[in-house]
Amino acid sequence: MLFNSLQFLVFFMVVTLLYYRMPQQKQRVWLLLIASCYFYMSFVPKYLLILAGTIVIDYVAGIVIGSSEGRKRKAWLTVSIIVNVGILVFFKYTNFFLDTVAPAIKPLFPHAHIPYLDIVLPIGLSFHTFQAMSYTIEVYRGKQPPERNFIVYALYVMFYPQLVAGPIERPQNILPQLHERKEYKWDNVKEGLARMLWGFFKKVVIADRLSLVVDYAYGHTGLSPWAMWVGAMFYSFQIYCDFSGYSDIALGAARVMGVKLMENFKQPYISRSITEFWTRWHISLSSWFRDYVYIPLGGSRKSEIRRKINVFIVFLLSGIWHGANFTFIIWGMLHGLLVTLLPNRGSKKARLWSAVLFGIINFLVVTLCWVFFRAQSVGVAISYLKGMFAIGKGVTFYGLNTMEMWLCVLLVGILMVREYKFRRHLIRSDAGFAAYCAVMVAACYFLGVFGENQFIYFQF
After folding, report:
1. Which subcellular locations apply to this protein (predicted)?
2. 139-157 per-position pLDDT tens digit
3. Are 359 and 438 in a shared domain?
4. Cβ pair 214, 164 in contact under 8 A
5. What is the pLDDT of residues 255-290, one digit of tens each?
6. Could you list the residue range(s) of the whole structural domain that residue 223 is in?
7. DSSP readout, 343-374?
8. Would 116 be classed as within a structural domain?
9. How many structural domains compose the chain?
């Protein structure tokens, strides 16, 4: 059940109407949990059992950690982490490991058969695994009391708006809201629906239309360097609109029900350094790695060399988290090197011309890194980068549909104005809200690209 489908819209409306018809919070929690189970089962039903198993283990671990002392607490935290990470590694990296070691083993054991397991990655596994681990870690640190209500804890992990692609929430933000009965507020509904519509627009109108040009650029040879640059830069905006569009829909759907999720994006492409970029891009993931990996490794309390090593480790793990492919690992390593080696030019006191210049340079650097993220293999990425810097072909967009390309440029311009000039999602007047909804619905209907275009980050 993709967010950009009629099935989801019907599901969302039915769940929301039932939610506000129920007088007791206990009933609402049960409703949302059942709805979240149905939502998750719409992808691969059998994997609900795996998710349920980890929920039970983490729930018990939280109770024991919160009521024990000494080694027992650490033992149960270790069990929780091993189970969660073990499931993630098995489903996401087993075949990658087998494919990697097979060439090394074959010369030594020529008759050995390296199996390829028929494993389907549970959707959103990386996201809800990290969210579950944040709970047990926070309980262990004494920053979060253990949740005694199993249904509430299960909903914390499975809350359908952010179940499959985040934001990766913390228990301190979500659990208190799940215990509190939310009164119906028209402002919440308006703000939530406006944000959802903007998310739909970013996904079906901008991201999916950009994908037409991007897919062509990455799927064909013989394009001019300028055309390949267009494809690369369009992908920067495609992945932003795709992922932040999902986040807007998730935050909007939760807001309609009175639940406030954390922001996941803050205009990342105006960043003046890679360091600043990571304070604005996928904020819930970068803050997760900061709190649970970087700081435990010593953070900035160690020597400068050790600090840079810690930063590099975080970005290496971030690349691995994103996918079982060397392209993601290289992408993470590149960002790690850029953060450790380049200065942070995120000062708010910088002059306008300086901010614009470094913003453009930083965007181009991020775009070059995205080539590895988008490419199917390292070889394809290197070949694409070589094509971008080929000399002597002139300024031509040979190979691209010119009309489609300029429509995409117009849509990117609309995105920039809307995201950086008019960021508020709450429209005060009802007439203005109705007009906004009409324009967004019409734009999605007439300009949207519809089909089985799932969100990019669903694969993680």
Report:
1. Cell membrane
2. 999 999 999 999 999 999 9
3. yes
4. no
5. 999 999 999 999 999 999 999 999 999 999 999 999
6. 187-272+345-459
7. -----TTS-HHHHHHHHHHHHHHHHHHHHHHH
8. yes
9. 2
